[in-house]
Amino acid sequence: MRSSHLYLLLAMLALATPGCNCRFPAENRGEQAAQPGIHRQDWGMLTGKPVYLYTLTNGKGMSVMISNYGGTITRWTARDSSGQQRNLVVGFDSLSGYLARPPYFGALIGRYANRIGLARFSLDGHEYRLAANDGRNHLHGGLNGFDKKIWEAEELADSIPELTLKYLSPDGEEGYPGNLMISATYRLTDSNALSITYRAKTDRATPVNLTNHSYFNLSGDPGRPVLDENLVIDADHYTPVDSTLIPTGEIRAIGGTPFDFRHPQAIGSRIAEVKGGYDHNFVLNHPAGILSFAASLQDPGSGFRLLIYTTEPGLQFYSGNFLDGKFRAASGQTIGEHDALCLEPQHFPDSPHRPDFPSVILRPGETYFSQSVYRVILP
Ligand code: GLA
Fold first, then answer.
1. Cα(319)–Cα(179) distance, integer angstroms
2. Domains within the chain, CATH numbers bracketed
3. Is 369 a pocket residue for ligand 1 (Cβ < 6 Å)?
4. Residue with CA nearest ligand 1 atom 7
5. Does the Cβ of 322 fall within 6 Å of ligand 1?
6. Residue 318, ligand 1, Cβ within 6 A
7. Ligand 1 proximity of 316 Cβ (cutoff 6 Å)
8. Contact (Cβ atoms closer than 8 angstroms) between residue 123 and residue 207
9. Fewest CB within a 10 Å sphere: which of 21, 24, 85, 110?
């Protein structure tokens, strides 16, 4: 079987989710969900708007907590081999943690995930200027990107717990053209897969690049570096970057380099050869737009494995290089360098300046569509 066929099969298996005979209590304020369904709790008020924390629990006892503040995944728990619940992502248990502006822990990123060089771009003969919030470049949608917005939420109490978040990004917000209506739907299936589907419509041409910025640590202990976790990325190429992390434009073969993750490789095994650590876009082998296998991560201690499937053409692998101990996880540990990592399915950084990269431009009448599935395999 050709590897692309194998990936398609894996992708289909990930989505083949038998329905559960779940009970769905309408609402369960103030306590964590114990039974399958979706539960909402109050999480505070911000600029006069209520902030909620939703717990999606599947029929297998896995829970994912998501806030309508920034579409943020705050906690993702699964049972380890001894039956204990382990949290596989870095997050806080109160809204105040997120208001201190952590580096995008668990957040939904937009209007443009990753960097746009020199914080400006031209489109249809106009130049647009964006906030330079990462040196001279624009990062993750600007000063107040989608990760800092309060989204409207809609819960669906169906056989699979589902939460849809919506946000209207007004024309000119953070310098971007066009009113952009975005929805993000999170579903937690009984095959322990969290699917996030993004859709967007605009009334003026605009770049759009959405992703989720979860920091994974599959040991369940965010105070422990992830350098011994084994990573696979289905990419034969990556995009080298300049000193400000903007792609040079080259699409470079990974063979023989520390970027070769085609077979399981411990993250720490060659990280010393990568100046600053991994913070690079990998060019996924699969045909863009088709939900296919992108990456897997495995922790040798806990035995948890994460499989990522996406429709996106790229995957940003960030090895938590800028984590500096400034923030403490909900469980109390300080989060230092390489204590967690991000695998962000997305279009390539700086695409508005690179006509040869897959296009990120959404035009009136078109619908932006992107789906990523994160499936956890229990030990
Ligand atoms: C992304 C970027 C990194 C860094 C983090 C947030 O993954 O690629 O360079 O900005 O977000 O700290």
1. 34
2. 3-377 (2.70.98.10)
3. no
4. 318
5. yes
6. yes
7. yes
8. yes
9. 21
Tell which residue, 323, 106, 333, has the closest CA to residue 227. 323
List the catalytic residues.
Answer: 213, 344
Give the pLDDT confidence score for residue 13 in this predicted structure: 34
CA dihedral 229, 109, 358, 308 (to 10 degrees): 30
Residues 146-164: b if buried by 16+ CB within 10 A, e if exposed: bbbbbbebebeeebbbbbb
Which uninterrupted H or E stretch holds 12?
A: helix 3-15
| Cβ-contact 308, 195 below 8 angstroms | no
Here the tokens at position 335 are: 């989060």
Q: Whose CA is nearest to atom 12 of ligand 1?
A: 103
Tokens 């030990």 — which residue? 379
Tokens of residue 148, six digits: 């800092």
Measured in angstroms, how far is the CA atom of residue 275 from the centroid of ligand 1?
A: 15
**Separation of alpha carbons 187 and 236, rounded Å:** 30
- pLDDT at site 34: 57
Ligand 1 atom at shortest distance from the alpha carbon of 322: 12
- Amino acid symbol at 29: R
Can you give the pLDDT at residue 186? 98
Give the residues of the chain that fall short of pLDDT 50. 1-33
